[in-house]
Amino acid sequence: MTEIDAINRMLRYIGELPIPSTVVLTSLPEGHEALQAQTILAETLREEQEEKWWFNTFDVEFVPDTTGRITLPNNLIAFESTEYFKDGGDLYEKETLSSTFTENVELTCRLEITFDNIPDVFRTYVVLVAAKHLHVYLNGDETTQRELETKINMQRIKLEKEHLKQSKFNLVRGTRLIDRGTNPTAVI
After folding, report:
1. What's this model's pTM, rounded to 2 decimal places?
2. pLDDT tens track for 124-140
């Protein structure tokens, strides 16, 4: 599914005609429903990737530049660390409040992946959520909204199933709750 296909699917839910695949979106007049759909699609894509998924979470090693600064990429959504924080586009150490590093820093990061590079199951989910936002924004028909909510819920189930499959989650070996190799300690 291309971005134009996604926008056309969103337009269908508000009762608008699709735009031809040969149309350049920037050539459309300001306020056109397709431009609004494109904006909502981009916002929804970013918002939904704030959650940790198998395809947007990476261990990244950052190397300081010649001045000792580590500039974080623009597509960084978040990173997991209690030692560092982001200010502007630079990485800072919490304890010293310094942005100067002498060694590489490895962080588990969530990166924003472009629409064309996300998995199909996630792409469909994002398009449905964006279609719901567009529908509420421009139309508000309750029957269509219920249909969208049902489709979103069904796609979310598919997405969660794929996430578990790709994450190689294993109840027997993967959690301390069920791991028989350790002696449980009392919780006080």
Report:
1. 0.83
2. 999 999 999 999 998 77
Region for 15 from its dihedrals, namely left if φ exceeds 0, alpha if ψ lies in -120 to 50, beta otherwise: left
In the three-class reduction of DSSP (H, G, I as helix; E, B as strand; rest coil), residue 59 is classed as: strand
Sign of CA dihedral 83, 114, 61, 74: negative
**Is 103:63 a contact under the CB 8 Å cutoff?**
no
Q: Where are the beta strands (DSSP E) in the chain?
A: 57-62, 76-80, 84-87, 90-93, 105-111
The model's pLDDT over 2-46, given as tens digits with 9 standing for 90+, comes to 999 999 999 999 999 999 989 999 899 998 999 999 999 999 999
Torsion angles phi and psi, residue 114, rounded to 5: -70, 160
Could you tell me if 62 and 106 are in contact, meaning their C-beta atoms sit under 8 angstroms apart? yes
Give the C-alpha distances (Å, rounded to integers) separating 186 from 19, 50, 136, 152, 174: 62, 35, 50, 41, 20
Distance CA 4, CA 8 (A): 6
For residue 101, give the 3-state DSSP assignment.
coil
CA 11 to chain centre: 22
For residues 163 and 52, give the distance between their C-alpha atoms in angstroms, rounded to a whole number.
10
Q: Which amino acid is at 182?
A: T
